[in-house]
Amino acid sequence: MELNFKKIDDLNATLTVALAKSDYAEAVEKELKKHQKQMVVKGFRPGAAPIGMIKNLYGKSILADEINKLASQGLYNYLKEQNIDIIAQPLPSEHIQSDVDIEKNEEYLLAFDLGLAPQFEFNISDKDKLDKYIIEVNEAEVDKELETLSARYGELSNVEVAEEKDIIYATVTELDENNEGFEGGIDKKDISLTPDLVKDENLKKQLTGVKKGDEMTVNIFALFNENHTVISTSLGISKEAVADLNPNFKFTVTEISRRVPAEINQEFFNKVMGEGTVNSLEEFRAKLKENLEAYYRGESDHQVEHMITHLLEEKHDVPLPDSFLKRWLLSNKEDHYNSENIDERYANEAKVLKEVLIREKAAAMFELKVEEQDIEDASMGYTLSMFRNYGLQNPEFEFVKKFSDDSLKKKEYIEQMNDIAIRRKVYNKIKEIVSYNEKRVTIEEFYKLIEEHNHQH
Question: 255, 315, 371, 404: which sits with the fewest CB atoms below 10 Å from its CB?
Fold first, then answer.
């Protein structure tokens, strides 16, 4: 076997693998004999069919398999021995013609194009300065949180007339162009909503003040703020079917509920904070303030990490073998990429790949390694966040742990958690390196700054 590596430029190369008969003959013969032992051919004892017959039946396919296997092994062994880093798997070469005519030849040439990993320096130091916000929690914010919790832990009671924050239960029926029930459409489907969450002001006014038994015609898309995911979930249909809905629905109010705020007493303190954690309103407010401050420290830290992402992008020029990678995506992900969308979709792929390469560079430079515990911690955090997104704010530890452990039995999930863990380690290291310009801000000022930043980007 003869291998020849040739650089085209800093990001592209070709590698050829030349195979002589002596390279593959023994492996092919061994594979033919294995087939012979397994074959049952009429007129011969099991495993006793002539080797010539086996060769006529399977020789060419076995030869092709062995050629590809040997070439692949040779290629990856060469890259490992020469310490050559590549991006994505090699592709059949567009620069050198392969010669694998097994009908005529006994010597073969397989040529591959390689995308080379870019060379760059990690460029973050204490000269890099980031804004870090110290978010102040005042008594007005504590009042607001107390009011929110009182409402959350209150009880639902039926009322006659709906207000903006009440829950309206209703049935909806899809209508045709004549405002009659649409045959085969949605019929008397139970839904619930809060007028306060409806963005269409006219519709919100219509819903505020309705009574049990009231009927009206509503635009189903306006009712759910054009959110197709929410519409599909509420109506029990697929997301794809939402686009085919008629917009007008008959809306019949079946019930109206209002949450009556909980009384501020020891029972309430125990429900929110746990039995005996606080014993007075003063202690409860102090604990609320402490929890809010911890929450907003986390929000500030998330913003620092967001700025680190921008900093890494700005401070590192990471060139990529773009043409090679586009060709690789078109060859390996045909269900997602085609000639019409590759340029647009590749931009995001390239952005993510550059982020990964920068993180890998930092991890190698600072000798950061992901241990098993890091992956378990990442999984627990990911699982807890997922549950909270579904509205389960304080799930039992054992429940979260079991779900996390079950998820960690899947290879793809482990790889995902490994990425999260190494990102966390890299970002924590960068937080230690960079300098900070601390700014004290109110909660309103903080979110206004975030909104302005997001608008700019």
Answer: 371
* Residue 372 sits in the same domain as residue 448: yes
Beta bridge partners of 2: 18
3-class secondary structure, 6: strand
Model pLDDT for residues 15-50, shown as the tens digit of each residue? 999 999 898 888 887 887 777 677 766 666 676 677
Asked if the structure places residue 11 within a domain, the reply is yes
Q: How far is residue 164's CA from residue 396's CA, in Å, rounded to a whole number?
A: 33
Query: Model's pTM, two decimal places?
Result: 0.72
Which domain, by its residues, includes 412?
129-137+279-456
Spell out the alpha helix ranges (H) of 390-410: 397-407
Interaxial angle between packed helices 411-433 and 342-365, expressed in degrees from 0 to 180 and rounded to the nearest 10: 60
Mean of the pLDDT values across residues 193-222?
95
Name residue 392's amino acid. Answer: L
Please name the residue that has the structure tokens 């009231």. 214
SS3 of 98, please?
A: coil
Q: Is residue 274 part of a domain?
A: no
Q: Is the model's pLDDT at 148 over the cut of 70?
A: yes
Q: Is residue 145 situated within a structural domain?
A: no
Residues with Cβ within 8 Å of residue 13, at least 6 apart in sequence = 5, 6, 7, 84, 113, 114, 116
Backbone angles phi, psi at 401, to 5 degrees: -65, -45
